[in-house]
Amino acid sequence: MFGQILFITMALVIVVTSIGVVAVRNPVRSALNLVANFFALAVLYLFLYAQFVAAVQIIVYAGAIMVLFLFTIMLLNLGSPSELSERGDLKRPVTWGLALLFVIVLAGGIFVRLGEAQPTADDLGTVQMVGKFLFTDWVYPFELTSILLLIAIVGAIVMAKRRL
Amino acid sequence: MDAVPISWYLILSAFMFAMGVTGVVIKRNPIVIFMCIELMLNAANLAFLAFARQQAQLGAQVAGQVYVILVMAVAAADVAIGLGIIVAIYRLRDTINVDEMNLLKF
After folding, report:
1. CATH code (residue A68)
2. What are the tens digits of pLDDT across the range A70-125?
3. CA-based torsion, B17, B18, B23, B25: positive or negative
4. Which of A16, A30, A97, B12 falls between 20 and 30 A from A154, CA-CA?
5. Is the Cβ pair A49, B28 closer than 8 Å?
6. Partner-chain contact B31 A117, CB within 8 Å
7. Displacement of CA A160 from its chain's centroid (Å)
8. What is the pTM of this model?
9. Domain coordinates of chain B in residue numbers?
10. Backbone angles phi, psi at A8, to 5 degrees
11. Chain B window 33-62: which residues touch A at a Cβ cutoff of 8 Å?
12. In this predicted complex, what is the ipTM?
């Protein structure tokens, strides 16, 4: 019962903030909505026995990535919402309607066929367990990720630097 | 902790994904579009973790969490490159309205 109440609270936070990201006009407020969304998601990750992923979610997403977003918004000085005002045309209500339809169809499909949660070990999502599998079964994807990050570093420098 | 069925997580994930798609379609500020892409990636992460709880074997359960970590690494690279491109375009054009970006058309 306590778990259900906590889940519904966090789900409400996620629903409100993810609508807020899209509906709010000021990009800084969008970013702050997204930070709240990520924190609530981290709580849900704890429900799913993913302790390490929850910590990484807060450190990497709510910490690093959102600071990068806010830094860029401040750097480009796009604080005034009138500069990028959204025109009120037919596209917006149609898109909201299609999004609603998408959720209804997907929710219907989810209810049709879905198994139950399986019993699991309590230490499923600890650093020890995830690290063991990350460095044995998943070592090639892990190393490929490091190459990807290296390319991203070089690419970001090439993009942002005026003269190399 | 098993009080909540898996389908609740998946419906929440579907809702987040739909909001992300909506934002990508209707927004004109590319930074907000990027935020909506992050929203979609997080929806996928939630679905990964929820489906991992359905697996019977330990290896498959941990695999869902490993996927989430890899997705986070890809998202970090994605944001670094994307914001670099936005800053470069702002320097070149003095605006970042996506309706006025037509450099790749020609």
Report:
1. 1.20.120.1200
2. 988 888 876 555 545 556 677 778 888 888 888 888 877 777 666 677 777 777 88
3. positive
4. A30
5. no
6. no
7. 25
8. 0.89
9. 6-94
10. -65, -40
11. 34-36, 38-39, 42, 45-46, 49-50, 52-56, 58-59, 61-62
12. 0.89
